[in-house]
Every structure is written in structure tokens, then in C-alpha cells.
Amino acid sequence: MFSEKMNKPIGICISQNIVVVTQLFGHCINMYELEGKLIKSVGKKGNGEAQFYLPHGLDASDRNNNVYVCDASNNRVQILTQELKFHSMLGIDVFKYPFDIKVTSDRLLVLDRSDLCMFVFNSDHVLTKRLITRDRDYNIIMSDYCSHCVYVFNQEGEQIHKFGKEGQGIGEFYYPFGIALDNTGHIIVGCQKNTNYLQFFELILHLIIHS
């Protein structure tokens, strides 16, 4: 199968019995039949439409068969049609180094290596959540942009804590976006709209200070 020589194939997905592969150092996307025959190759090194710079993960949508490609060093996701023609771009002002992606029926999940976080978009490509990776106990912490709260999940993905509600008071959030951990394990949350302070929480989820 796949006798065509590739330059570090790194991402792969299958859509409508077609295999689509990213070539990291080839800065391109290849399309194959299931038997391995090359159908077409798209892209070259660059930052224009359907050009790539170290493309990583990719996935295809079951709704429209569009292919979503993590164009990592161009800090964006490119959306291509099933024929690998340029459709649109996503996250130019959001991502720093998107390296993996998953498309579901109602959301789009993008992992960003530089920010060590995951971005969640709805089916209309509106950013709804931003997740950091893990705390000292390997719990996953997520700010929910639209629900104005923060979730904490364990390693199995089970929700173990939720805190915050819509508002601009202490312990409340108004479109929380930035979220991080300091070296003592405090959760720091910043909101995108109409607030001028950061809120700090201990891992036991008690507010200790806002500044």
C-alpha cells in the first residue's frame, strides 16, 4: 500500500473512504484511495490559502466532509473542501501552535502546544471554551466562556468541581477566557469583558484574592 514516498507523515484521517495525510516537512496534504493510490497532493510551504508551514493533525467533518488541518507554524486551522480546495481559516488570532484537532457533530476541539491548552468551538466556529492541560494532581481545568464558570475534571474526564456564575462580583465571571496555574497551584482566571482584575483560587476552590 502507500508506496508514495512521504516527508514525515504525521496526521491522518479517513473521510468517505478517502485517506487524507499531512506531511510535516513536505508542508502539504495528500489524498489517497484506501488501497494506497495517490489521488492528489495540495499545498506548499507558505502562509497563503492552501499553503502550509509544518501541518500537524487533521480531521474531517461528517456534516459536510470538509477537512480541518492544523497549520501549526502559521498559527491557524485551515478548512478545506472534500476535494482539498481552500474553504476558510479559523483561529488566526487565537492559536499559537495548533497541533491536533477533533471534529464532532456539534463542536470542534483544537489542541494548542504553545499555550498547553484546548480550544472548543461550536458548530458555527464560535469559540466557547478554553481548557488548560493539567494541575499537579493531573486534573483538567476548563474555563467555559459562554456559561461563565470554571470546570475541573479528573483524569477519567469526570467532572469533580464547578464554580462561578455570570456576574462581575467576587467569585463571579463574565466571559472567562484566560486561565492558568501559578507555581503554588493557584487557579488564576481572567475575563474578556467588563472586568479589570484577575481572580485567584486555591485548588480547594476558595477565592483567596482578586487584584
What would a concise description of this structure say?
The protein is mainly beta and 211 residues long. It has no helices and 19 strands.
Tally the beta strands.
Answer: 19
Spans with pLDDT under 50 lasting ≥5 residues?
A: 206-211
Mean pLDDT: 85
Task: Please identify the top-level CATH class of the largest domain.
Answer: Mainly Beta
The CATH architecture of the largest domain comes to: Beta Barrel
Strand percent estimate: over 45%
CATH fold naming of the largest domain: Thrombin, subunit H
Number of domain modules = 2
- What class, by secondary structure content? mainly beta
Strand order of the largest sheet: 9-10-11-12-13-14-15
3D shape: elongated
Give me the number of helical elements: 0
Level of helix content? under 10%
| Major sheet size, sense and barrel closure | 7 strands, antiparallel
SSE series:
EEEEEEEEEEEEEEEEEEE
Radius of gyration from the alpha-carbon trace, in angstroms: 19 Å
Terminal Cα separation, in Å? Answer: 60 Å
NHL repeats: 39-83
Protein name: E3 ubiquitin-protein ligase TRIM71-like
InterPro entries: 6-blade_b-propeller_TolB-like, NHL_repeat, TRIM-NHL_E3_ligases
GO molecular function, one term: zinc ion binding
What can you see in these coordinates?
With 211 residues, the protein is mainly β. The protein has two domains: 9-95, Thrombin, subunit H (Beta Barrel); 142-210, no CATH class. 0% of the residues lie in helices and 48% in strands. It contains no helices and 19 strands. The protein is elongated, with a radius of gyration of 19 Å. The chain starts with 8 loop residues before the first strand and ends with a strand. 29% of the residues are buried. The model is unreliable at 206-211 (pLDDT under 50).
